Amino acid sequence: MNDNIILRVVSKMFIPFILLFALYVQFHGDYGPGGGFQAGVIFAAGFVLYALVWGIEEAKRVAHPNVLQWAVAIGILLYAGTGVASLFLGGNFLDYGVLDHHDPVHGQHLGILLVELGVGITVAAVMTSAFFCFAGRRRVDDGEDAQ
Amino acid sequence: MIEIVDISLLTLMAVVAVVISRLRNLFGVAMLAGFYSLLSCGMFVVLDAVDVAFTEAAVGAGVSTVILLGTMLLTSSEEKATTNWSPLPLLVCLAVGGLLVYATLDMPRYGDPNAPIHHHVAPRYIQDSPTEVGVPNMVTSVLASYRGYDTLGETTVIFTAGVGLLLLIGSAFRSIRPNRSASTTSGGQR
C-alpha cells in the first residue's frame, strides 16, 4: 500500500488523533466511559494502521519488538506492583486507600490510575505483538525459502 | 424509535451471519465478520455499554479483521467445497439454540429493577462508591477497585495469551532485527 497517496495522507493525519484518543480514553476513564482495556486496543489499532500503510518493518522501527516484549510484562507488573505496594503500606492486596496517608480517596485515585495504566500497557503491547506475529509470518517464510 | 434500531440491527446481524455461513470466498467472509462486529458494536451502544462498544469496534471490527486477512495470505482465499451433507450438525444447532431461547424465557426483563443482579452488591457499590472511591465513573471504580482481583486476573489472561502467541508463532516477531535493512528493501519492491 506504499504507493497509495490518499491512504498515506489520510492515515498520516489520523494516526496522531487515534493515539491521542487512546490516551484520552486511558486517563479520562475515571470520568467517562473507557479505561485500560479500551485505551490499549485503540492504541494498538493506531499501530496496526501505521503498519498497514507503511509496512511491518517500518512499524517495527516505531514499536520495536524488544520494547513490546518488555511492555507486555511491565504492564502487568505495574498492576501487581501497585497491589504489593499497598500490601507493604499496611493495607490488603490491591487496597489502594493506603497509598495516600492523608486521604484514602486520593489513594484510590492514584491506585486506579496506576492499575489502569498497567492494563493499558499490557493490552496495547499484546495486541500489537499479536498483529506483528501474524502479519510477519509470510515474509520470514519467504526469506527461509530463498535461503 | 429504539425498537426500530434494535430490530434493524438484529436483522442485519442475522443476515450477515447467514451470508457468512453460505459464502465460500474467505476474503468476503473476513470483511463480513468485521461488519458483523461493527453491527454488534452498534448493539452495545444501544444497550448503553459504550466502553464495550469501544473494545468491539477496535478489536472485532479493526484488529481481528486485519489479522484474519493477514492469515489468509498463508492459506487459500477460497473455502473448499464440502459435498457430504448430514443433518446432525443442523439438529445440534437447532437443539442448543432452542435450549438457549427457552432459558431466556426465565430471565428477568432487560433493565428490571427487581432482577437479582440489582440486589446483591450493586446497591452498596452505588451508595458507597462516591465517598469510598470518589471516581465519577462507577464502572471504573467497580472494575479497578472493588473488583481489582478480577481485573488483575483478566490482565493475566491477556498476558498469558500474548506470551503463548510469542512462543508459538513468535519467530517472525523476534527474527526481525538481523535482516531489517534487507526486508525494508524487499518491502519497497512489493
Care to describe what's here?
The complex is a heterodimer of chains A (147) and B (190). Helices cover 78% and strands 0% of the residues of chain A. Chain A is mostly helical. Mean pLDDT of chain A is 86; it is low at 139-147. Chain B has 190 residues and is mainly alpha-helical. Chain B has a domain at 1-78. Chain B contains nine helices and no strands. Chain B has helices at residues 2-22, 26-46, 50-72, 87-104, 122-132, 138-146, 148-169, 171-174, 180-189.
Number of helices, where a helix is a run of at least 4 consecutive DSSP H or I residues of chain A:
6
Give the number of helices of chain B: 9
Helix fraction of chain A, binned, reads over 70%
Mean pLDDT across every amino acid position of chain A: 86
Oligomer: heterodimer
Strand content of chain A: under 5%
Largest sheet of chain A: none
Task: Please tally the β strands of chain A and state the result.
Answer: 0
Query: Outline of chain A, from the CA principal axes?
Result: elongated
CA(first)-CA(last) distance of chain A: 26 Å
Number of domains of chain A: 1
Q: Whole-number average pLDDT of chain B?
A: 84
The chain pair forming the largest interface, with residue counts per chain, is: A-B, 65 and 59 residues
Radius of gyration of chain A: 19 Å
Shape of chain B: globular
Note poorly predicted spans of chain A: 139-147
Question: How much helicity do the residues of chain B have?
Answer: over 70%
Order of helices and strands of chain A: HHHHHH
Helix vs. strand class of chain A: mainly alpha
Largest sheet of chain B: none
SSE class of chain B: mainly alpha
